[in-house]
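Dear colleague,

Thank you for sharing your sequence with our group. We've completed the structure prediction you requested, and as agreed, I am returning the results in plain text so they can be pasted directly into your records. Please verify that the sequence below matches your submission; if there's any discrepancy, let me know and we will rerun it promptly.
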Amino acid sequence: MKKFNNLTEIQSEISAGALNCEALVKYYLKNIEQQKELNAFLEVYQEEALQEANRIDQKLKDGTAGRLAGMVVALKDVLCHEGHELSCSSKMLKGFQSQFTAPAVQRLLAEDAIVIGRVACDEFAMGSSNENSAFGPVRNAADLNKVPGGSSGGSAVAVQADCCLLSLGSDTGGSVRQPAAFTGTIGFKPTYSRISRYGLVAYASSFDTIGIISRSIEDNALVLEIIAGYEEQDSTVSRKEVPAYSTQLSEEGRVKKIGLIRETMESEGLNEEVKAKTLEKIDALKAQGHQVETVEFSLLDYILPTYYILTTAEASSNLSRYDGVKFGYRSPNGTDLESMYKKSRSEGFGEEVKRRIMLGTFVLSASYYDAYYTKAQKVRRLVKDQVDQLLSEFDFLLMPTTPTTAFAIGEHSEDPLEMYLADIYTVLANVCGLPAISIPNGEDKDGMPIGLQIVGGAFKEADLYAFSKKLLPA
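Please find the predicted structure tokens below.
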């Protein structure tokens, strides 16, 4: 069976009688089995997926199938799916089963998408390389010795390796866009609050968003259209009406005004090949008649520290619930209540999660709260104001998604600061709560994918999709 690039191709084959959902699921199951060395899937729902395929095949015959019939998806192991294990790729939650289904997942199922399995991530979505999973690192399908990016590395590799058509991930500081750049896929982070976070395991609540990884803009837009919108159980979700993104993908031809952030192109760690590919795309945009202007963004150096102070503080609070009492791992070595708490958390959490909990606890402590946490909140506001000002003058902001292509497994393991710098360009959108997309932008000399990132104004997802579609090869 050939590789499908979008749902339209699949549904055309089904309509022509050349394909059905059962055969499609078997094709993906075969690909998963043959590429086990990628370590992308923590669990494959083989029997369930085949049963769903048969049910949807019957609905297709009856003419009652949903809009996503023929779409096979994978879920990052931080999204609740009732009756299925949810571990956040951590020993802390190994064996835990979801008690309900996240609305984003439920809306996919309601339109007859088929969930084929749950995929690995950095533990509790904390990481930039997918090496922090309690179940081993995920490997990049383009080079098994390279990382796929993180934390949604399993989600990206599942799409990259043709083990599903589309996947859901989560993006707190670039965790959908960065792995998309490393794997040559499309990664989309919507405006904060556009998709309900209910049923998404919390890392940093004021940053977390559910994101979408796909091979086509069309599929990405259609899925956002379906899963976005109000959810009564989520007090942080937007009540704004959800546009029909999938019908608004044709560019009207208006010249766009694009801001290229100068500091991102002059940063010390920027790979020359990534820089060259970005400049090539800028030349192409200018040739198409678009205005591209270099803009100053003096606060770029402050974004990463602000992000890590605030997210670790929120993580420290959110992860306090994993105490060995209500659910999750409980150490067999505890001798009293205090030692049970200490040993359960020390043994259940991995090194990176413990590092971030400790950092967060430190910045929230009475002696340092104003010096770090309060100050970071003020800087976050300054960053947002400056970015909003830029977006009042430009349609989009453009920059590389990542400063380098995928690095070798273990390359940054001994230096957390080097690892954190992999997010230097992506955290901007999360700090400001803005929509952003990473699209493929060629490859380096070793054949590793390069990503281009575009950031738009709040709730301007439709414009972002339409513009990004014009930048991709027809």
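Summary note from our side: The chain is about 40% helix and 15% strand.

Kind regards,
the structure core
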